[in-house]
Amino acid sequence: MITIIGHIRSGLGKASGFLVHQLPHIEKEFSEVAACRRGSINVELDVPLLVLVPDHRTKPIAWMPGSPFKEVFDLLRIELEAPPDAPPLPAWLYIPHGSPHRRTLKIHEIITTPLDLAGVKSCRIKIKRSTFQLPWHQYPIVVVT
After folding, report:
1. Per residue in 60-83, pLDDT tens?
2. How far apart are CA 72 and CA 41, in angstroms?
3. Can you tell me whether residue 91 is helix, strand or coil?
4. Which of 4, 71, 108, 119 is spaced 20 to 30 A from 93 at the CA atom?
5. CATH number of the domain that 78 lies in?
6. Domain assignment of residue 43, given as a range
């Protein structure tokens, strides 16, 4: 298990509108996320994180009404403590393959059940999977396998 500190950031403001359309499709394949809020929590992690093997990868989903565009989503089970030391909640890293956040390994989106984050600026995520940290002193990176 690895624990990583994160800092809650404002996002692009699109996830809540997109998740209304995306989650019903994702739930058909991965029912664990059925109770999640139709919005994401944007977190900047203290270390970069690369998920090589998610807990679930969807088939390509045509989630945008009227568009032929299809997108794949990765989901990784985590525990979220927001703020740090709060009781842990089941949550998932939500990794839409078409998101610009994929270009930055420190920025991740989290979905979970409805949660009051008023005034919360930091959090802690726990990943109970096989991970390793690359020994690059200037740019350490955690890899989930």
Report:
1. 999 988 888 999 999 999 999 999
2. 19
3. strand
4. 119
5. 2.40.30.30
6. 2-144
